[in-house]
Specification:
heterodimer, A: alpha/beta, 8-stranded mixed sheet, 6-stranded mixed sheet, 19 strands, B: mainly beta, Folate-binding fold, 4-stranded antiparallel sheet, two-stranded antiparallel ribbon, 9% helix
Chain lengths: 417, 93
């Protein structure tokens, strides 16, 4: 690391009024040719470039970002990190990511503020109880920490939850993953950008992809707003816009892009020291280090690229939040926003080769991609470098929609998609 | 959030409707003849267009009838509404 951050660098820079900090990543113009180009400068894309440079010894790499890095879904999610998925393939994938999170600040020499404050998933009806207990057992068989809490234990763990049996959807219990938690979303993008840039990766912002040049069944380069760039390996990590890029290459994906909303409240003193998610009523809440409540709402039911979302979705979520946490009834919401999420029919991601040589897709993360950022980047880098998937992402290939070997996390994931 | 002009009921709030996704995907006439690739194409693959998209909607909290809509997914503007079985308007690509 060229400019390692430490207590000494902090003191040194304090003496010069913090005016001499080095730029954390470069701002180069694109070269004519790269060994690999990553399309999309979000957390997943930057992590991919970082691991390509670090573990696979590829140095001539560019990341193209049409806006600014981390300005898409990386900057719009509710920062929840957990790995308590039902199926073996998902458990392997998400727990790989969680293990990387645990050491990420040290790895990147950048504080990603990973906080293992626990994630609790509530059950509101008998089917929820059965499903969540089953998931707890499946998690433990896969070596993932998970416990079942009854209603009293839920109340003890998070006292502000209304556990009265008289509410519309009473709390019948819940699961808890203590290793789960949150991280600072921007820091993840910035930390990976700094690490990648340090190893010679060109991070090119304000550079939109306009076309993918193919020669028969292989890729030759990318048309961008900054001109044509030659390459024979393209990794697309464009989240909600994956289908738009795929269409440029003449490929169709099993995705639908929909707005997903979140909102934050005015900042208050610490009141909730964990993350609580509720599938049945679709409300989840945590508190940021600034003191804002971070609330996740649902997706709209229709395809849209508007980055807004509908008012009725927010209204339903807030109704549920107020029933579960009456203490929040007089809080003011400060900001609301939407991000475009690409949802797969089986609610599992795609980290895969395609039938076009040199074109790789990492997409379909739907409503829950943030938690997987380090793992996704690591496995996608492996897939691009070796032209073969790693064993942890082999199940998440594009061909599963033909073979029928789906990883159906729709009902099985901890929150509705 | 937008209004949809149901061909049977008139302008109503979008929350009264449910989206049926991409329109004009024809159900296979002879399912037993289909290859795995063709099944994947029919069941899962979608254009997912950013721009003008042809789609189906159901007025689920109203007349419960299905119809087609031409909508720009980049700004949610509805350009045309037409009934099931009618030919899609030709002035949109």
């Amino acid at each position: 690391m060229k400019n390692k951050y430490s207590v000494f660098s902090l003191i040194k820079n304090a003496l010069s009024q913090h005016e001499n900090w080095q730029q954390a990543w470069g701002n180069p113009e694109p070269k004519k040719e790269y060994d690999a180009i990553i399309v999309g400068g979000g957390g997943h894309g930057l992590a991919t470039a970082y691991y390509l440079a670090k573990k696979h010894n590829l140095k001539n790499i560019a990341v193209l970002e049409k806006g600014w890095i981390g300005g898409g879904n990386t900057g719009r999610n509710t920062t929840i990190i957990r790995s308590n998925y039902l199926w073996d393939a998902s458990a392997g994938l998400y727990d790989h990511a969680l293990k990387l999170w645990e050491n990420l600040s040290q790895e990147l020499n950048y504080n990603v503020m990973f906080s293992q404050r626990g994630v609790m998933n509530l059950a509101h009806n008998l089917q929820d109880v059965r499903d969540l207990k089953r998931r707890t057992h499946a998690n433990r068989l896969n070596g993932i920490d998970a416990v079942w809490l009854n209603t009293e234990e839920v109340k003890k763990f998070c006292p502000i939850i209304n556990t009265s049996p008289d509410i519309r959807y009473p709390v019948l219990g819940g699961t808890l993953q203590r290793r789960a938690g949150t991280a600072r979303h921007d820091a993840v993008a910035w930390g990976y950008a700094r690490g990648a840039s340090d190893m010679g990766v060109d991070i090119i912002q304000n550079c939109e992809v306009k076309g993918i040049k193919r020669n028969g069944d292989k890729v030759e380069g990318i048309e961008t707003t900054k001109g044509f760039i030659k390459t024979n390996k393209i990794g697309v990590v464009a989240a909600g816009h994956s289908s738009v890029i795929a269409n440029m290459a003449g490929l169709k994906l099993p995705l639908e892009s929909k707005p997903l909303q979140a909102l934050v409240s005015e900042p208050v003193k610490p009141i909730i020291d964990t993350v609580v998610m509720s599938n049945a009523v679709h409300a989840y809440v945590s508190q940021s280090d600034k003191g804002e409540l971070v609330i996740g709402a649902g997706t709209d039911s229709y395809v849209s690229y508007t980055q807004r979302g509908s008012h009725n979705i927010v209204e339903e979520t807030l109704k549920a939040i107020l029933e579960l946490y009456p203490i929040f009834s007089r809080m003011k919401m400060l900001r609301q926003w939407g991000g475009i999420v690409d949802i797969c029919p089986d609610a599992s991601p795609i980290i895969s080769k395609t039938n076009i040589k040199g074109l790789y897709f990492n997409c379909g993360w739907g409503t829950g991609g943030f938690k997987a950022t380090p793992g996704s980047g690591d496995l996608f880098a492996h897939t691009i470098a070796n032209d073969e998937p790693h064993k942890l992402n082999a199940a998440f290939n594009l061909n599963r929609f033909v073979s029928g070997d789906l990883v159906d996390e729709h009902g099985a994931a901890a929150v509705a998609h | 959030m937008f209004l949809i002009n149901c061909p049977f009921c008139g302008d109503r709030d979008q929350s009264e409707f449910s989206s049926g996704g991409e329109a004009h995907i024809v159900r296979p006439k002879q399912p037993t003849e289909l290859s795995d690739d063709e099944w994947a194409e029919y069941l899962f693959m979608r254009k997912n267009i950013k721009g003008i998209q042809f789609e189906r909607w159901n007025h689920v909290h109203g007349c419960r009838k299905w119809f087609n809509v031409v909508r720009d997914t980049s700004n949610d503007k509805i350009l045309s509404v037409y009934k099931m079985g009618e030919k899609p308007p030709v002035n949109y690509k």
